[in-house]
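Handout, section B. The chain below has 304 residues.
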Amino acid sequence: MRSRFEPDRQLTARMALTMFLLGLVYVAFVAALIALLKSTVLVVVIAVALLGAQYWYSDRIALYAMHGRLVTPEEEPGLHGIIDRLCATADMPKPRVAVSHMDLPNAFATGRNADHAVVCVTTGLQRRLTVEELEGVLAHELSHVAHRDVAVITIASFLGVIAGLVVRFAFYSQLFGGRGRDQNTAVVFMAVMAVSALVYAISFVLIRALSRYRELAADRAGAMLTGKPSALASALTKVSGDIARIPTEDLRTAQAFNAFFFTPAHGPGTVVANLFSTHPTLERRLEALAALAAELGGPGGGPP
């Protein structure tokens, strides 16, 4: 089903290109493993099983990790009311709604498609934002569902994790079990590590580039739906400023899900760190929203 969210052909093209390139990289990766290890049936079976579990149960995994709980309209009438209005405006199925009792101000959407999606917000976000600001954040998250980039980033991220696991497996196998092995075996394991590290590095760069663009696309689509870019810009400014004041331990717990968050769970980074971030800089996002507000005809935008 097509929603009324503004289509983004550039996002669609980038998702297709990223998955195509990752596919080529992983075909080469499997071929290299077969050549080096002679038998990779178990590795492939385990990888496919884990990928299937990640794809089918990504919503449950994310909610469990972030201490999220599905809530009914009776429990959270205000939150459900905003999502009901946005989904009616966008003409899209309503996702399940969840709340995470964390002070970290953030939100995320996950799920393999629009019919199996969930949007989760933290109590820290609800407490800090006005209704208009929260509406902007939720429109941003719903656009991820409508654009289907949640499923793409889930699969792409998991493929990178597999390569990382192979690197660790090869390293620890050689480190703790290498005394009785001959030199040829050691060379094979070093080769596996090198290939896996290269695959992980390529995947990392491709996924980060896609992730940064999809956040800009979601900002634009969400602001277009509500017609209030300034409300989303205000939410971004508030959340980014407050995240910098969250204890480091709490941020570290959440950083594994940065690619799915409305804003990353860390403070301002260096120029190099920003190049490898899952999100564009706050300044870049605010500039894009300001340009959209001018395009819509005023400081706050126009009607949706």
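Note. Residues 224 and 304 are 6 Å apart (CA to CA). Compare this with the example in section A.
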